[in-house]
TrEMBL record:
InterPro entries: His_Pase_superF_clade-1, His_PPase_superfam, PGM_Phosphatase. This is Histidine phosphatase family protein. SUPFAM superfamilies: Phosphoglycerate mutase-like (SSF53254).
Length: 199
């Protein structure tokens, strides 16, 4: 019994690379991101997809909506694949974070550091891995789409690759990318990593 998971990072918003948005509200896709979301919908148009689950954050929902519309399927909100809770860092510019020694510690050793008033990457990993395990049972022998966030997708992939959480910087998860994971009773394997649909 296997299930195939297409782990989709939300498309680009106008603050990508400048602000650590975290779970702050009101972060919507920009024009580039809207175009990326439409390309994702085209990419999945000929796939047989049994379910579409998305993080509750606006940028994820706005990425998932064109896919759901194209496939004529409902969206399901899944809190367990939401962005990491960055606590007090949410909404802070990366320029300001670079001056914070706690930010440096977080990026050097995510296995044993925590954002102020936030959650660890290991806690985020437990959330998404738990969701994948539950959905694996629900969608046996079918494929589903999970629209989530870069570090959360990385956490899931690191778990299934048998790598430590501190290996998070060894690969990229681009906006609007697809990483495909197959999970079975026998274990799991990554079929594709960071597939970006060309314009």
């Amino acid at each position: 019994m296997t299930a195939t998971f297409h782990l989709v990072r939300h498309a680009a918003h106008d603050r990508v690379g400048t602000i650590l948005c975290g779970r702050m509200p009101g972060v919507h896709l920009g024009d580039v991101g809207k175009a990326q979301a439409e390309r994702l919908a085209e990419r999945f148009a000929n796939e047989t997809i049994a379910g579409i689950h998305t993080s509750p954050l606006e940028r994820a929902v706005e990425t998932a909506e064109p896919i759901a519309a194209r496939l004529e399927q409902p969206l399901e909100i899944c809190e367990d694949i939401a962005e990491i809770d960055f606590g007090a860092w949410s909404g802070t510019s990366f320029e300001a974070l670079a001056q914070d020694p706690r930010w440096s510690a977080w990026n050097k050793a995510r296995s044993n550091s925590r954002p102020p008033y936030g959650e660890t990457m290991l806690e985020a990993q437990a959330r998404i891995v738990g969701a994948i395990e539950r959905l694996h049972q629900r969608y046996a022998d079918r494929s589903i789409i999970l629209v989530s966030h870069s570090d959360v997708i990385k956490a899931a992939l690191l778990y299934h690759l048998g790598l430590p959480i501190d290996a998070y910087a060894r690969f990229d998860i681009e906006p609007a990318s697809i990483s495909t994971l197959v999970v079975g009773d026998w274990g799991s394997k990554v079929l594709r990593l960071n597939e970006v649909v060309a314009a």
